[in-house]
Structures are given as C-alpha cells and as structure tokens.
Amino acid sequence: MTTILGIESSCDETSAAVIVDGRTIRSSIVASQVEIHAQYGGVFPEIASRIHIESIYPVVEQALQQAEVPLGEVDAVAVTKGPGLAGSLVVGANMAKGLALSNDLPLVTINHLEGHIYSLWLAGPEYRFVPGQPPAEKSDVFVPIEFPVIVLVVSGGHTELLLMTGHGEYRRLGGTYDDAAGEAFDKVGRLLGLPYPGGPSIQKASRDGDPAAFNFPRVHLRSNQGEENYDFSFSGLKTAVLRMLQTIQPGYQPDDPLDDDVPVADLAASFQAAVVDVLVDKAARAAREFKALEVFVAGGVSANAALRKAMIERAGVPVRVPPLSLCTDNAAMIAAAGHYRYLAGQRDSLDFDIRATWPLA
Fold first, then answer.
1. How far apart are CA 269 and CA 164, in angstroms?
2. What is the DSSP letter of 116?
3. Strand partners, 297
4. Do 128-321 and 3-122+327-343 fall under one CATH topology?
5. From the CA atom positions of the chain, what is the Rg in Å?
6. Residue 79 near residue 6, CB atoms below 8 Å
7. Dist. CA 328–CA 29, nearest whole Å
8. How many other CB atoms are found less than 10 A from the CB of residue 202?
9. Directed axis angle between helix 305-314 and helix 198-206, to 10°?
C-alpha cells in the first residue's frame, strides 16, 4: 500500500489530499478563493499568493486529520511544481519541502496538467461512458485504463490535446494559440454581464437559450500544407460575440450595462456550442487517427455539461470524465499522479524550483 500526501497551490485553490494506491481518496481539502477574486473579474495573483500563505498549513493539517494518517505513515509528498502563478506555486512548494525535510520523506514534483489527467484514475465506473450502453452504476470496481488514449485538458489557463501512450508518456498534438477555453468562457461571461467565473455562469444562462440562434465561427486551424491540425484559437470567437453585442446594442463597449432586450441566454448558448463543437471535433478526429481506446476530458471546463454530452455522443470510443469535485484544481489529482511517479522511481531534491511555464510534452 502506497500513501501519498498531495499539495496543490498553482492558482487560487489551496488544497491538500491523502491518496492510497493512486485510487482511493482518504481526504481531499480545497480552500477556494473564488468569492474573493470574483470582485476583480479574475484571479488577482498577489492576493492569491497571500491567501495561500494563510491557508496552506491548516489545509494540510486538516487533510491529514481527516484521512487519519500521521505523517509517519506517508510514503511521499507530491506537490505541483508548475505551470501556474509563480507566487502561488512557491507557497505549496515551500510547504512540501518543509514537510519532506522535517520528516525525511521523499519529494515528488508534478506537472499540474498531468495532475488533471490523473483525476481520471480517481473516477469510478459511473464516469466512464461507452457508446450505445447505459451509464454504469456507482461502484468501487475500477475499469482498467488501456493505452493509447486521447486526452483533452481544458481549463482557465490551458487547452491541450495529447496522445497518452503510457504512464508519463505524452505526445502533444495541439494547443491554443491564444485564449484557453476557460479563459474565453470568463471573458465572454464578463461581456454578457454574468458573474465570475464565466464557465458555470454561461452554462446556467445557456439552459434557457438557443444554441443555433447565432452562427458564431468554429475555428479549424490548418498547417502550412493546408491540412487541418489539432491547434485551437478562441480569441476570434470572443471578438465575434463582442461584435454581435455591438450590433444588437449600438455603441456597446466591454463592461457597459446591457439593455434588457439583449438575448443573453441565446448568446451564451451559441457561444458555448461553438466552443464545444471545436473541442469535440478535434478530440474525436484524433481518437480515430491514433486508434485511441478511450478519450479523457479533464480540467475545469470538463465540468461543462454540454461538453460532456457532446463528447460522449460523438467521440466514437469510451469517454472518461472526472467527478465535478475533481474538475477544478485539487491536490487529490496531484497525489494520484504522484503515486505513479513515485512507483516509477522519481525522487526530487529539496532545491527544486517552481516553473510558471512548463509544457507537459
């Protein structure tokens, strides 16, 4: 039995978790700063790092207490090394170093994107959807993962399409040229006068909207040879929403109040549909090209119901998604990734430095 203490502080969640054998969550504590940053319409980095400093010790202490695991029974400490906000990452890294040094524990550093991927190892069979079959019932029986798989990581800071051929083995197929999908949701949510964060707000507004009301662009980027590639771009879509708002409400500028007759629900639903179409089309095409056995969807935007539904319907292979509690940043996923890194023999020195920018592949 391997017990890993995970620590995550890459952005605005301070989190600690205890995971056993890479699959069983003994505890998962997340202290969110969403309400604090909502007044700024986004994460304020300096404030985030200060709150991490105040939260990190009690969060780790609570995770150990809830798991009923003393530090002496922990096999290793796994911590997010990057990518993320530098000031935030340093807080978690220093906490992990202190625990490792004072308790003579091995230290395993984890790429935040890899952490999101390993949230799927914490998901039960009810989060694996097979074409043509009803959803599985909740169970403790884990359906083994066989490679290769296509991984779509979609969050506020990242949109990456990866081919995963084994534990720790990745090939980057494509990524965003500009805004990440979650960032686009936040920016368009702000244009529509919806609360931060934009993803949940746009999903909620879309329930009463028509996704075909506005024909927003689906950007399918191409290589120099004219072939469609696996990269993404959402900046133009955001601009298209702005231009449509200016057509409906002449003179509108970002942060202006919207007139009562602006069809916010239809705009939200049409924008969401445009994002989902591109994400699903590229993931499904990659699954066919690389003969993937499954498609993984992970990251904050994987909580989006329209994205889940469309991917399950159109991927052509089984699809795994995380529980909603594991979509946003959390230390359970970091500990799960840490389990496999630890078993592979990874050990990191106490003098490691954080990496605000750190490609997974």
1. 32
2. H
3. 152
4. yes
5. 21
6. yes
7. 12
8. 27
9. 70
Contact 357, 157 (CB under 8 A): no
CATH topology of domain 3-122+327-343: Nucleotidyltransferase; domain 5 (3.30.420)
Would you state the structure tokens that stand for residue 176, as one six-digit string? Answer: 């965003």
Q: Which of 67, 50, 51, 90 is nearest to 16 (CA)?
A: 67
CA proximity to 10, closest of 63, 120, 87: 87
* Spatial separation of the C-alpha atoms in residues 318 and 30, rounded to whole Å: 30
User: Which string of b and e fits 105-119 if b means at least 16 CB within 10 Å?
Assistant: bbbbbbbbbbbbbbb
Q: Where are the domains of the chain?
A: 3-122+327-343, 128-321
d(CA 337, CA 335) in angstroms, rounded, equals: 5
* Cα 237 from Cα 217, distance rounded (Å): 6
d(CA 225, CA 5): 48
Measured CA to CA, the distance from residue 213 to residue 34 in angstroms comes to 31
Low-confidence residues in the chain, pLDDT < 50: none
Say whether the peptide bond before residue 148 is cis (omega within 30 degrees of 0): yes
Question: What is the tens place of the pLDDT at every residue in 164-185?
Answer: 999 999 999 999 999 999 999 9
C-alpha to C-alpha distance for 335 and 131, rounded to whole angstroms: 31
DSSP bridge pairs for 163: 150, 171
E-strand ranges in the chain read 3-8, 13-20, 24-32, 76-82, 107-111, 128-129, 149-154, 159-166, 169-175, 294-298, 319-320
What's the topology of domain 128-321? Nucleotidyltransferase; domain 5 (3.30.420)
